[in-house]
What we know:
heterodimer; A: 197 residues; alpha+beta; Aminopeptidase; 7 strands; 26% strand; globular; disordered C terminus; B: 759 residues; mainly alpha; three-stranded antiparallel sheet; 24 helices
Amino acid sequence: MSNELTYIRYNAxxxxxxxxxxxxxxSQELSEPYSIYxxxxxxxxWGELCYLAMDKSRPENDQMVGVVVSKLEPHRGGPxxxxxxxxxxxxxxxxxxxxTRLVRMSIDAMIERDADxxxxxxxxxxxxxxxxxxxxxxxxxxxxHRYYLNGNSAYRLVLYLKEGVGSVRTTAFDPYSAIxxxxxxxxxxxxxxxxxx
Amino acid sequence: MLPNNQVRVSSMRVVSQxxxxxxxxxxxxxxxxxxxxxxxxxxxxxxxxxxxxxEIMDSKxxxxxxxxxxxxxxxxxxxxxxxxxxxxxxxxxxMDELLCHEMAWHMGHPLSQTLFTSLYLDKLxxxxxxxxxxxxxxxxxxxxxxxxxxxxxxxxxxYCLALVKACDFVHDRxxxxxxxxxxxxxxxxxxxxxxxxxxxxxxxxxIDQAIxxxxxxxxxxxxxxxxxxxxxxxxxxxxxHALDEDEDIKxxxxxxxxxxxxxxxxxxxxxxxxxxxxxxxxxxxxxxxxSTVPPRPIVKIxxxxxxxxxxxxxxxxxxxxxxxxxxxPHNFRVAIWTLLSRKPQPSVYIRALTQALLVNNTNILGSIxxxxxxxxxxxxxxxxxSVLLQSNTDxxxxxxxxxxxxxxxxxxxxxxxxxPFVDTYxxxxxxxxxxxxxxxxxxxxxxxxxxxxxxxDEQLRTLSHEPPLPLPNGDTTYSYPLSSWTYxxxxxxxxxxxxxxxxxxxxxxxxxxxxxxxxSHICSTHLGHIDRIRTFIASTAKRNLSSLIGKKRHALxxxxxxxxSLRLLERLTTQIVAVDAFAISLHALYVLLVRHNILPxxxxxxxxxxxRLRYELRMKPFLPISLPELVPYEEFRREAVLEGDSDTIxxxxxxxxxxxxxxxxxxxxxxxxxxxxxxxKVNKAPAIEEDxxxxxxxxxKACIGASIAIESVKKALAGRKDSPxxxxxPIGLRIEIPGIGSKARWHDWWAVPQVSPAK
Lengths: 197, 759
């Protein structure tokens, strides 16, 4: 294991080299399974917010040891919100600040693009990730019950980058439009807003 | 981590009717011009579509994928024979495993990963049987004689069918109430039915036949095994009756759930007798289910966990009947919220059942109209001039009559406020994360409602000729009953949002002093508001006293109602004082811990955000609220750190507040949960009362914990004074804040630090 890690920004020209490695790293480290389209959705539109940590001392086709995948777009017509979708570091490379470095690079790129806030979710059992983000100034804004396919709950972590973000109006939307409950059931009385990324 | 789940990501795209044409050539041609990874999408291709996409020929996503070396039969079919002979131990093992799957489904896992992995159930339910008769294990063979052992086709079949019917009741109940798909429950049936078209009587009959067959097996089947099987069948019968009865909300019987409880205990004793057959369950069935979701692993929960869940379900269902003893909106609120705040929280079935009880046929508890319910609460809390509540358009037909106009205004009030008010009860039936999130939304609605109520109050005041109340400074003021009531509701929601934040472990350690300060700030605002309401009730009561001399029955009634309101306000005051004092004390304690650098912080110096930005984020739910006004950051910061107060003053504040808190919690406990009627009658709800008391007692334990922590800090500070250079000497203590669920966390809402000497 080398101390000489290099950090690179994702480059679409190298999709054939990077994406399979990225997928295998993420599918090993994260509990959620993603299809190739999820990767393409992010990489094609926001590749410049995606960073890779490479260990050049490893075999050529197995150098990727960390990855962060993000996006940046207006949130419901309101603030420009960055979203960190995936963050993974090979187990034997943890505890070296690689994840922090990757996240910082992604956040810095979002700040350069005038992001107002950054949000993400993490499993409530993933204390290492929670600590990492909290050190960077994120707060837990809410808990999300049984958020992931494995039944685990999540925290939403949010970072405001500018004053006044909290007061920026977002477009109201019908909170029930996405509830796939019984369409013939009673009209729900409660104002339950679903959260969307 | 992004959730790979369509429900979480975005709303469904509506696909309109389309005309099909073959585009293969065009598509191939266009695709050949793209490089790998290049994304061509319209603006409607959202993350939702990306997340919902499946990859063909990927073993993890493509449910029809047959791997290299696999053949069709091996990949899709199981070679387990469901008609094979079973020993009593094996029957027992299958029953218990099915129960585990049933409870896992109750807990929120999909049928595809739980019950629908059973090859036995698969055989009974697919193809969809047209009659109960048709739901058999040996469906190809119409000759019933060749069906095999009665242990299989009488006993196990009855058990399986009764189980499926029980699921049907549960599914029906939950899907007709408000719940969150995939979060609370998965309603997906994959084009199968849970035998909903067949009456319960069929299944009860099958169970009875199975029990009588088992009873006849003395000597052929070991007694212990016989008892164990019989107990499981009896449990199924009990559950069927209980769930069937739940369909009719008005029945108040707890009989059937009560009969289930001893069976649950006996199951836990005989659980070890069964022999599990893993081959009887298969992941492969998922490949045949109508689903867009790739096959996922079978969910495994332990038999102990399943029984514990079932036992709680029965007990919660029994105790839920206590809320039916209705004695006014206040008591009803205490009962509902206490029951649904139980730890662990009652399951989604119970929460759905509660909703059905709460609002049934557009009436509260099936018999109280929303207007009546709302008026009772107004009477209890603000006791507005009776003209407002007694005017009725039906009786006063002259539009020029003020009473007619009052009635019209009040009808508008009921229309506008009825539903949000009922929702303050329904909210309790959401999962705890959703309770807080929902409150964060409703509190904004209530802010708007309060402004509307204020307008109404002003109009009603002139119509009712309300006499002004002179203030000591010579000004006059009016009671504003409707907006006062509204503000009270809103302040309760404020408090709940803050306290649920503690319960859901949302605050970082460095936020604790500020959040306890904010909690006390909201409490003192609330106490001031209650005082205002009290002043008006007292003055109205005083005015009415003069008419009481004439012994008007109406005035006497009013007097009794006023007294009850005053008692309620007294209760609320005591309880809010208790919260306030405890919050003040913890705030002061945490200030000291910060000052002496022993409170850990989650954020680092390299953080991207400032304290000001974090404050803005934490106040997000309250930013749009006009009253109470948002505390400006500078003021918040000064208050949160108790700027200008010496350690001695802060310590004294902590000590005095905790002693006041302990007294106030004792007084709260002594009052009990419910407020007696004017004739002295009080709710009969022993189980709920027990929960309520336990909660208060836990809070009192937390108070004691805080006293001890304050004492330790006091001693350390006093000890340090003797040293020559006291200001730079470390305090010599370390702290730990027990997390939610740990034994030392006496109460979820009170993060009391444990203070010990530094090593």
